[in-house]
């Protein structure tokens, strides 16, 4: 490990307190809960377990801070965000250590996530200065029509554990860039990367109350964030089940909503694909973060003519993957987040085996025990298996066989999700045909890893609403106001 837990705490990067109204505080009743390293299941820290009362105070602080923050110039907000990004760039190794400690992913992946988060913050620092209005040709001779964009107000942000830093960067940065203030609730499994936003705000001179971070009881904090009328927008990344709950809970106060939810991504490999590229990209897209990625492939549809060869090459490569603690050199796959995650993966594999799936490699808990699972490839997967319908969220590549193009498309679309999809082909006409036919918010064509601040990230169907990143990612934090200026 590059830096010890004690050092991270002594240097002030790993905070065991909540950040409300510019103060580092505990729960009202002093309650805390323990955070563990998923690779070792050893305690790494205690953070406050707060509920509705503390959340209400954080919302009030954000509401007060909104009055002046929303009046700052775009250049001022951009400067603060640039500073926040710079602190991350300057401390990539330190922050990556903290991420691997609480989340488990290999250190190189943690570093990449931290850098991606800083890239998003930088992107929205730049976007802050492009929140333009419009002057529209008027139907009246004596009137001017003006359209302005204004910050929506206090934002409630709830985030998952799989990308605990970068998922929040696409919420915090556009909110601040737009002139909004925010109350953050990170996942209970990875609170330290969420609390880091309090530290970054403080260090970058963002005024007290603009950024607040509370940790603890998801239902209680989420209940307050969604029912409190002062919160004007909820931005959520997590499971479809919780997303739908928050959607319903937000109805009475008519909030703006962004929902980045679950996926069940298909990858279609056509007979004419560049197989080396398809295998290399399949590995990157599937096994990153131990397969705990909302956009990672859950279902591989491989055309008849290359099915056996693709399966052989993929299996060969997967067999070489080194599994272990994310701090060990050369480790490509870390642990899963907890025992529940291992059980779900195991259940999917067992179900596939029972229904005729053929294990080509892996297929069981790893010899390291605890939260480790073997990188797995299963052939002869069929639509009746659990893995065809549910997000496995683990290191399992499931290979389905198809014959004709339309069959592959129909199978890929046979899900209530529509976040990411991928396909591999060298045929130009097919590229456009298939891209048009796939029901998905994002499509990787001959590419397995597609996330970047420049592009709009988000899904259709049960995968959510709204887009994060790109020039569109700030829209959800803005209201449009129409001014009809008469008497000219
Ligand atoms: P989750 O839905 O269990 O938890 C997400 C967050 O919601 C956590 O902070 C949790 O504490 C909170 N929460 C749980 N119950 C709540 C409640 N009743 N009220 C309010 N908040 C509550 O999801 P997870 O297990 O942390 O993350 C994995 C899921 O996230 C997967 O389904 C994955 O596909 C999805 N995900 C989607 C994207 C995307 O951009 N679409 C990105 C990453 C992860």
TrEMBL record:
The active site is at 260. PROSITE patterns: ALDEHYDE_DEHYDR_CYS, ALDEHYDE_DEHYDR_GLU. Residues 24-482 form the Aldehyde dehydrogenase domain. GO terms for molecular function: succinate-semialdehyde dehydrogenase (NAD+) activity. Keywords: Oxidoreductase. One of its GO terms (biological process) is gamma-aminobutyric acid catabolic process. Signal peptide: none annotated. NCBIfam families: SSADH (TIGR01780). Belongs to the aldehyde dehydrogenase family. PANTHER family: SUCCINATE-SEMIALDEHYDE DEHYDROGENASE, MITOCHONDRIAL. This is NAD-dependent succinate-semialdehyde dehydrogenase. The lineage of its organism: Bacteria, Pseudomonadati, Pseudomonadota, Alphaproteobacteria, Hyphomicrobiales.
């Amino acid at each position: 490990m590059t830096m010890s837990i004690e050092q991270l705490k002594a240097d002030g990067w790993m905070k065991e307190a909540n950040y409300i109204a510019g103060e580092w505080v505990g729960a009202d009743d002093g309650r805390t809960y323990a955070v563990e390293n998923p690779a070792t299941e050893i305690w790494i820290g205690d953070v406050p377990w707060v509920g509705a009362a503390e959340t209400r105070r954080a919302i009030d602080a954000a509401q007060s801070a909104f009055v002046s923050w929303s009046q700052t110039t775009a250049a001022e907000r951009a400067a603060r965000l640039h500073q926040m990004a710079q602190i991350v760039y300057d401390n990539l190794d330190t922050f990556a250590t903290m991420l691997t400690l609480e989340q488990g992913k290999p250190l190189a992946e943690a570093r990449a996530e931290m850098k991606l988060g800083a890239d998003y913050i930088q992107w929205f620092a730049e976007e802050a200065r492009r929140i333009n209005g419009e002057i529209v040709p008027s139907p009246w001779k004596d009137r001017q029509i003006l359209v302005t964009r204004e910050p929506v107000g206090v934002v409630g942000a709830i985030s998952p554990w799989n990308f605990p830093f970068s998922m929040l960067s696409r919420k915090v940065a556009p909110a601040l860039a737009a002139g909004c203030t925010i109350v953050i609730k990170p996942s209970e499994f990875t609170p330290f990367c969420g609390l880091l936003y309090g530290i970054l705000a403080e260090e970058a001179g963002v005024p007290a109350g603009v950024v607040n971070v509370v940790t603890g009881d998801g239902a209680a904090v989420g209940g307050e964030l969604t029912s409190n009328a002062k919160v004007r927008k909820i931005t959520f990344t997590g499971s479809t089940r919780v997303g739908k709950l928050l959607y319903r809970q937000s109805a009475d106060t008519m909030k703006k909503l962004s929902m980045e939810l679950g996926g069940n991504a298909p990858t279609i490999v056509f007979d004419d694909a560049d197989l080396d590229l398809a295998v290399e990209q399949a590995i990157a897209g599937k096994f990153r973060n131990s397969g705990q990625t909302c956009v990672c492939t859950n279902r591989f549809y491989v055309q008849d003519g290359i099915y056996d060869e693709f399966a052989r090459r993929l299996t060969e490569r997967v067999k070489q993957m080194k599994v272990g603690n994310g701090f060990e050199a050369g480790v490509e796959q870390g642990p899963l987040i907890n025992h529940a995650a291992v059980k779900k993966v195991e259940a999917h594999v067992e179900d596939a085996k029972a229904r005729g799936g053929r294990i080509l490699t892996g297929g069981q808990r790893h010899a390291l025990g605890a939260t480790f699972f073997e990188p797995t490839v299963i052939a002869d997967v069929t639509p009746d298996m659990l893995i065809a319908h549910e997000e496995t969220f683990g290191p399992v590549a499931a290979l389905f066989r198809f014959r004709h193009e339309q069959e592959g498309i129909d199978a890929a679309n046979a899900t209530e999700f529509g976040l990411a999809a991928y396909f591999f082909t060298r045929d130009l006409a097919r590229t456009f045909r298939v891209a048009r036919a796939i029901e998905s918010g994002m499509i990787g064509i001959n590419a397995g890893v597609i996330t970047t601040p420049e592009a709009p990230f988000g899904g259709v169907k049960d995968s959510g609403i709204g887009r994060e990143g790109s020039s569109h990612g700030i829209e959800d934090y803005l209201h449009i106001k129409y001014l009809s200026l008469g008497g000219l």
